[in-house]
Amino acid sequence: MHLEENATYEEICAQLKEMYPKFQEIKGGWLLYKSSGGWGSRKLTLIPPDESGYNAKNLKTATNGFKGVIYIAPLQIELDTTALPPESESFNEMPKEKCQRCGVSYPLLILTTHINTCVTSEDAEQTGDEAEQTNDDADQTSDEAEQTKQGTCPICQKEMSLDVIEIHASFCMGDSVQPLELNASMEEPSTSGVYVPLTYTAEPSNAAKATSMSHDWKIEPDKNKAASLYTKEIIHQHETGKSLLMTMDVRMDKEDQDRELIAFYKQNGIEWACPVKCKLQGDAAIGEGVTRHFFSTVIQRLQHGFNFNMGNTARTCLFEGEPGHLVPSSSQFLIESDLFLVAGRMIGHAFLHGGPRLAGVSQAIVHVLLGGSAETATVQIEDCPDHDIRETIKLLDGEAELGSEEYQAVLDLSLAWDLPGPTKENRKWLFERLLSHAVIGRRLRQLKQIRKGLKETRVWPLLSERKDVEIFLRENENSLTPSVLLQCICWPSDISVNDDDDDDNEDCSLEDRCRISWYLRHFIETASSSDLKNLVKFWLGWEVPEGKMVVEVVNSEMPKSSTCFNVLRLPAHYMHFSNFKDDLLMCIGTSEYGFGLV
């Protein structure tokens, strides 16, 4: 639409009515809007009219020289947007062509739309006949289906008539018994009854077992066993899926290795419950022990930070704060990089496969993360990782009068977080609000990302259904004690261990086995929790004790382990505990860097 430089309101209206015939029907006033914005979103902004209405000068200024699109918005009626008929005067000057089906001339502008919807009288009659025939066929099919309705027994999965499926299912025990046979006497009422066997010796079918186990984790009283039942069921359902291949080059530096971990867990559209295959490039180790090593490394990086610089820090820590009071970092750079979504995937993936768990997270954060309300969370002052903010908030704890500088510090913090200044009446309330915002309010986006990651790894139904299951360890539960480890160890028996394929496994005397076993027990009883974790990691591949950890005494130079089989092989040549301890500490210290390094 072209406007003259000095066009008035009346001239603009006349030109609009000439170009858009439906504009003539607008009554009750109208206004003009222009669009603004970008990147997928548009916002309409009103173009205010002058005292005499819209004119060319007014519109030129508002649209930067008649650039862009102007929208007409009626004030009291709704504009009719249906297509004009082909004989409309608006199409008089447009080129037209006849429709080859109905013979009516249409403007080229709307001919394409007409062709897709054109229906002649013959087509209408044919369509009506086909619809009538379809209805007749449907009626006939429904009558036949009504006569021969079939159903499937939920236990044995066999089809039979709906008339008897209820009786059959009441006594069906799957494939272990013969199906109930139907005879002529059962089709009509009878007073003699039906003979049904009451005792069976065979076990239920696999289908029946799967049905009965599907909800066992919901009613299992032991929370750890319930978690094990759930994770095993999820993994079993996806055991035929495409395996996830996790690779890491141990020849790289720590920074590049950590970037590989982040890149793996940043992938979208991954089914995390599928089988996991791990490979260490530069290391000959294979098997389940390598998989355990991966999960141990993942949780260790979440616990202590990744070895690369993001946000001007030597180590990138996704969780910060004191042990037992860890909270997600408030770094906007980490949030925008979706690294907390990565953290949620890591936590859920390790938990799903029975691996280590993140320890020491604030209980207030855990409460909100798992669906609790921020108002009901118990927040402690130690949960605030920023010591400057913590000291400012602590000024409100108590009844001591605030000095001028203390009052100003609290006031500045309150105003920065859209809260009122401190008074005697709101002092306790303000203390709780500031503390809650410092710990939870500033981390809602991080928690949302972590929750999304947990849902993607399919552990969320367990956490939402079983509130007693803990996916995060408390700080006091993170330490490994000698009593816990000793209960899992299977000590060498007086039966000799012999393996014809390995010269190291030649028979050792009973005296050697007893002496080395005592050395190991004494080491466990006197070692620190950190050393015990390194021992278990060297033994199994991760720091989670298994139910059966085997000790073998063999003829070799240094301690070795077979992580896939949970076997620790100790040399028999040690005659002094100090020598045994030094070599064992040296060996277990290499578990972080790979396998076969001793």
TrEMBL record:
Compositional bias per record (Acidic residues), positions renumbered to this chain: 123-145
Q: Which InterPro entries match?
A: HECT_dom, Hect_E3_ubiquitin_ligase
Please, which domain of life does this record's source organism belong to? Eukaryota
Quote the catalytic residue positions. Answer: 564
User: Does the UniProt entry include the keyword Transferase?
Assistant: yes
- Where in the numbering of this chain does the HECT domain appear? 556-598
**Which keywords label this protein?**
Transferase, Ubl conjugation pathway
Kindly give the Gene3D superfamilies that the UniProt entry links to this protein: Hect, E3 ligase catalytic domain (3.30.2410.10), Hect, E3 ligase catalytic domains (3.90.1750.10)
Question: Which Gene Ontology molecular-function terms are recorded?
Answer: ubiquitin-protein transferase activity
Location of the region described as Disordered in the Swiss-Prot/TrEMBL record:
123-150
Q: What is this protein called?
A: HECT domain-containing protein
Species per Swiss-Prot/TrEMBL record: Phoxinus phoxinus (Eurasian minnow)
